[in-house]
Specification:
The chain has 13 helices and 13 strands. The longest helix is centred in the middle third of the chain and has 32 residues.
Amino acid sequence: MSGARSEIPVTRSSMPDFVEYCQEIAGLWDSRMLTNMGAKHRQLQGELAQYLGAEHVDLLANGHMAIEMSLQALGLSGEVITTPFTFASTTHAIVRSGLEPVFCDVEPKNFTMNPQEIERHITKRTTAILPVHVYGALCDIKAIEKIAGQYGLKVIYDAAHAFGARYQGQGAGSFGDVSCFSFHATKVFHTVEGGCACFRDAEFGQRLARIKNFGLAGQESVEEAGGNGKLDEFRAAMGLCNLRHVQEQIAKRRRAAERYRERLLGVPGLQLAAEQKDVESNYAYFPVVFHPEEFGADRDEVLSCLESQGIRARKYFYPLTSAFGCYQGRFDSDKTPVAQGISRRVLTLPLYADLTLEDVDRVCDGVLKIKRRG
Ligand SMILES: *Cc1c(COP(=O)(O)O)cnc(C)c1O
């Protein structure tokens, strides 16, 4: 092949048809109801409840506010058991809510919270568990539910990676006291920016609805020190359009992910996420853990080698949230050795609905070429 080859980004936002979106928003020029829980907002909430398998859904301005405002609506105090192998948002939401994160290690196959490690972190001050579904794999929902029930703890799932994933046929929005989704532009389903909380308890829902709207309960009554977590009509409209195509988008991601597996599974020194029995993934990310002793090159070498071929991969998640500069000295990342090991060795490879199989092959060729050199 001659000439420079195009860059392969690590992710690429999906877009609905331009005309489809224009039709969806056209009515807003007449109604002038641009935000504050309008018709698009209500419609998207209903459709998402159906799709995610949730009894109730409340839309929020982004996934982060979904977590933060859910923590406030639950009225938690004390310690929250969580994972350091996540995006900044999860841990920051706990800290910004005046709660203390307690870091539990992850299991080595899917990088989600290891339920066998949870109990030893429970103290008199523990009030909740905040696990994260990682890359499209789901947590050990049954085991977490059992421990939470035994100790009377709330469970809030960070489900930012789990849109469309299912456990035993049930949508990821049906688990825990609350499941929080992100609709950021880079996620499997998006509203540009946005998010939602899925839950069962209607009373919790009333509190959350107030908290996201400045705590207002009526024209003259303010019952919570709330904030502004509302999702506007333009973004709800984007969601309505994207939701019509999300199943097809997941199917395309699946084809790309399967091609990656065909090419990379069993290569010495490469560890792929394990396929989970009973779980239907959404193929949100394609992580590869590089074990340098066997692979002959470490993660950082692979990253820069791919870069030089115009292929963007991402150190995701690195560093562990417990190692962030802003938390200097407060947490000991050595106490979650599995999470630390994965974080130092993992890359997520390009994956999005429009990624061609030809480009998947180019990425795989790029990775395998590095191995031969090693
Ligand atoms: C994207 C993401 C968030 C935050 O969602 P935003 O919509 O960007 O606020 C939280 N947790 C995880 C694991 C994420 O990937």
